[in-house]
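SEQUENCE-TO-STRUCTURE ENTRY
===========================
What this section holds: a protein sequence and its matching fold, both as plain text.
Question of interest: how does this chain fold, as expressed in backbone structure tokens?
***
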Amino acid sequence: MGAPLADVKRLAKHWEQSYDWKAAEAKLNELPNFVTEIQCDGFRPLAIHFVHIRSKVKNAIPLLWIHGWPGHFWEGVKIMKPLTEGGDGVQHPAFDLVVPSLPNFGFSEGTRERGFALAQYAETLNKLMLKLGYNEYVTQGGDWGTHISRALAHLFPQYCKATHLSMDAANPPTFLGSPLLAIQHAITPYSKREREGRARTEWFIKEGRGYNLEQSTKPQTLGYALSDSPVACLSWIYEKLHDWTDNYPWTDDDVCTWMSIYWFSTAGPAASTRIYYETNHSNPTPENPRAISRDVLRKYSPGVKLGYSHFPMDLTVLPSTWVRTLGNVVFERDHEDGGHFAAWERPDELVKDLRDMFGKGGALLVALRARMDIRNECRFIC
């Protein structure tokens, strides 16, 4: 029925009385945090927060790591060091890592105009990468990071060269659109992973998707509770941290740090829900030709390579024939455990998948070279 009363009481008491936010703040400040101004076409400029770690390994691959909801940039902290340190740069490549707070999340500024949807999130991140001097880059994401990566593949394929996704979002193959995949789907029995994935997906649609409907239709009403009451905000998000992970052993400090980044966020915790509403109400029109809907994201994107890591306790776990309708899938791996927050729950597995996709064995992007140029307009925030 939702977050248990005993859990919420314990966490709220700890957050109020014994949790050390200053200690958590000090850990956040150890990261190379920056803020820079990005302006999307037709919208006012926004101050965008991001973590930027330059690898010491030559020819490191520029990687844009994109969080979702109810995540934030801190969700990626466990993969930052191993990805940027890499190995020999060939078999185990290193990455230049850019980890932004999405607009309306974390320490990025919030939007005030209506219509800031997937196209604008993608435009913001693409302009950020270009501003940092990366004319070619790859992405990794789950949740909204999946959808924004797909938007980047459709809108900016000249810059976004490949995407690795840890959440599935696709339609079944059709005989008209993908005849070979449709035949394969029709005659090939589901694997154990795919059968269990269907059950998990059906559970989410029937029992776990209420938050999505509310945030996609009436985020303003919900926002009053999220902004006014720490306990409302805690219980709304804690439910997802619990239900969307694979028996992950959350500590009370983990939860409180996670929650504090929402509570102390620049735009406030309610702002993070707007991405659902704006995306749900975004369709191309003569007045807004660059709008992009989720239906468009489920179309084939030529030229941008795709990789997938399937974690069994994610929200939507789909058959391989489905995700292969989206583009040229060059890497795919099934995992025995793990849930929605792959970078937080299973960082070692995610790092290995990225190394295998982009390393010598994958030989994916030998022409991609890191170019670093932090401009003067980027400044430390900590």
In short: The chain has one domain: 30-205+271-380. Strands lie at 33-38, 46-53, 61-66, 95-100, 137-141, 160-165, 305-310, 329-334, 379-380.
